[in-house]
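Quick one:
INPUT:
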């Protein structure tokens, strides 16, 4: 009688896990967690998907896909100063946020799909919350 219950619980647990995304090598993960300043004339943006079940979300900057985020994963992108359009795409709908990046600046953007929604959200957070989420997560493999 216990085996069907255990099997059902394991199936439910597996269903709650978010789909996996490819992750970067451990050395790239560790390097990003140092929060080094961006190179001269650039700013940096960390995108992260915090704990909680979420589908895989595509992240783009100015129309170029930079990578995919799953639960507890993150990406870092160094950008030229100026205006940029950040987008995420979930199961059905994309969402956008416009930012102006200054030289030397490091910004953090929470990217997730909230339960019951069909669109992902992009929400800028403070450095403390962003750093904590990055430190708890794993660096996703980036396209650029």
């Amino acid at each position: 009688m216990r085996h069907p219950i255990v099997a059902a619980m394991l199936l439910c647990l597996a269903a709650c896990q978010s789909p996996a995304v490819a992750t970067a090598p451990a050395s790239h993960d560790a390097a990003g967690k140092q929060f080094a300043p961006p190179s001269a004339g650039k700013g940096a943006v960390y995108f992260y998907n915090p704990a909680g079940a979420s589908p895989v979300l595509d992240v783009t900057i100015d129309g170029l896909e930079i990578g995919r985020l799953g639960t507890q994963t993150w990406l870092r992108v160094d950008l030229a100063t100026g205006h940029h359009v950040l987008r995420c795409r979930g199961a059905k709908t994309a969402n956008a946020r416009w930012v102006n990046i200054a030289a030397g600046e490091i910004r953090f953007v929470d990217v997730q799909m909230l339960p019951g929604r069909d669109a992902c959200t992009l929400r800028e957070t403070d450095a403390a919350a962003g750093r904590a989420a990055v430190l708890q997560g794993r660096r996703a493999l980036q396209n650029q």
